[in-house]
Design a protein that fits this description.
The protein has 187 residues and is mostly beta strands. 13% of the residues lie in helices and 37% in strands. It has helices at 121-132, 173-185; strands spanning 8-11, 14-17, 29-32, 38-41, 72-84, 88-90, 99-107, 113-119, 140-151, 154-159, 165-168. The strands form 3 sheets. It has a 5-stranded mixed barrel. A two-stranded antiparallel sheet has the order 1-4. It has a two-stranded antiparallel sheet with strand order 2-3. The protein is globular. The chain starts with 7 loop residues before the first strand and ends with a helix.
Length: 187
């Protein structure tokens, strides 16, 4: 019933307070589907296809009262890859499994930069793109439903468990418009 990129009409859901520490959406509420909830296909979708709500990098401001140990969520970011760091395999985690880690820097239209660290399957997506596009110099990445925190004065964005979407140089309106605006501002 629930499929990505399909429009649905949901009737009679209940709303509850979302008490999760890390939220997938910026709302303080969550939708619960009950026995009397009716879900039907929508014939005419309204709004953006992907529903991005991009956050300018300079709007991510550190809270001096925060302990910097927890992530905040959820944000969508878009930017050019300006620097990549070596791929890492981490085996010193709590579950004993080896984790894949890839870090890079994104640059936005205001020329502000953030660090992005992607783990496991998300890191693999970037590595696969790099393997298949070795000569590509202008790479734009969109992260949807990411989490962020401050560490040693820098913003770090990461995938939010398995919820995050990664778009790498995809032929979608948001990436095409970003490339045009970036070229206009920095030519």
């Amino acid at each position: 019933m629930l499929k990505e990129n399909h429009c649905l009409v949901i009737l009679n859901p209940s709303l509850g307070e979302n008490r999760q520490k890390v939220k997938y959406v910026s709302s303080g509420l969550k939708i619960n589907l009950n026995d009397n909830t009716v879900v039907t296909a929508c014939n005419e979708a309204v709004g953006s296809e992907w529903g991005f709500e991009f956050v300018p990098f300079d709007s991510l401001v550190e809270d001096p009262e925060d302990d910097n140990n927890s992530f905040r969520s959820s944000i969508d970011v878009i930017g050019y890859v300006v620097r990549s760091f070596p791929f890492e395999l981490k085996d010193n985690n709590n579950n004993g499994k080896e984790e894949k880690k890839l870090t890079f820097m994104l640059d936005d239209l205001s020329h502000k930069q953030i660090y992005v660290t992607l783990w496991d399957g998300y890191a693999e997506q970037i590595l696969e793109f790099e393997r298949n596009n070795k000569n590509e110099k202008n790479v734009v990445i969109v992260l949807q439903f990411a989490k962020y925190r401050f560490w040693q004065g820098f913003v770090y964005v990461s995938n939010l468990y398995t919820v995050t979407r990664v778009f790498i140089n995809k032929d979608i309106d948001e990436i095409n418009q970003f490339k045009k605006r970036f070229a206009f501002f920095f030519v």
